[in-house]
Amino acid sequence: MQPHPSERDLYNGLTSLEPTLPAAAYRDAGAYQRDLEAIWYRSWLMICREADLAGPLAFRTVRVGSQEIVVLRDETGSLRAFHNTCRHRGSQLCQESQGRLKARLLTCPYHAWSYSLRGDLVRVPSNSLPEGFDKADYPLYRVALSVWRGFVFINLVEDPNSSAEVSFDPASGNLSNWPWRRSSPGTSSAR
Ligand code: FES
């Protein structure tokens, strides 16, 4: 049966049935690891809508493979993302999946190193720091963040070649009637 004329533009080019993946692809640890490395650790991943992080100090955490990321709004309203890992001994910083931070600092529950919401290490309670220790050398590991039409994306590649906006805009013509921005607070993002 020929597709209805209104469906022809959606045709994806397949002309015959293709076999599905072998069952092992869904449960094999090696296949999972390859998926992580080929796709999840190097692609823009949608985390939430901007409106889901409404107002300064809102945060949520997300796990991607072995990595946990915290996405937050700093005190100026800019969106930021970091590995949810303390630079001291690697403790988890935010222990809840979402909410609002109680202060303008991310404070590690283990030995209380504190980071600004820009990711800079600003307070280290210990008096016995090694000689030459410089807080500036221990910021949180930053994660690339990009907003496309109110959707918040992260990318675990240290320095992605393009933003999510650049990656997705070619498709936007098909979505031009969709009211993407209606529920967005219209705030900014920062790397
Ligand atoms: S592990 Fe975070 S302060 Fe020690």
Report on the structure:
The strands form three sheets. A four-stranded antiparallel beta sheet has the order 4-3-2-5, with no helix packed on it. A hairpin with a 2-residue loop joins strand 9 and strand 10. Helices cover 9% and strands 24% of the residues. With 191 residues, the chain is mainly beta. The protein has a domain at 47-126 and 134-172: Rieske Iron-sulfur Protein. The protein is globular. The chain binds FE2/S2 (inorganic) cluster (FES). FE2/S2 (inorganic) cluster (FES) binds next to loops.
Helix/strand layout:
Blueprint: H1 29-40, E1 45-49, E2 58-64, E3 67-73, E4 79-83, E5 98-100, E6 105-107, E7 114-116, E8 121-123, E9 144-148, E10 151-155, H2 164-168
Antiparallel strand pairs: 1-10, 2-3, 2-5, 3-4, 6-7, 7-8, 9-10
Bound molecules: FE2/S2 (inorganic) cluster.
The site of FE2/S2 (inorganic) cluster has 9 residues, from loops.
Quick recap:
The chain has about 190 residues and is mostly beta strands. The protein contains 2 helices and 10 strands.
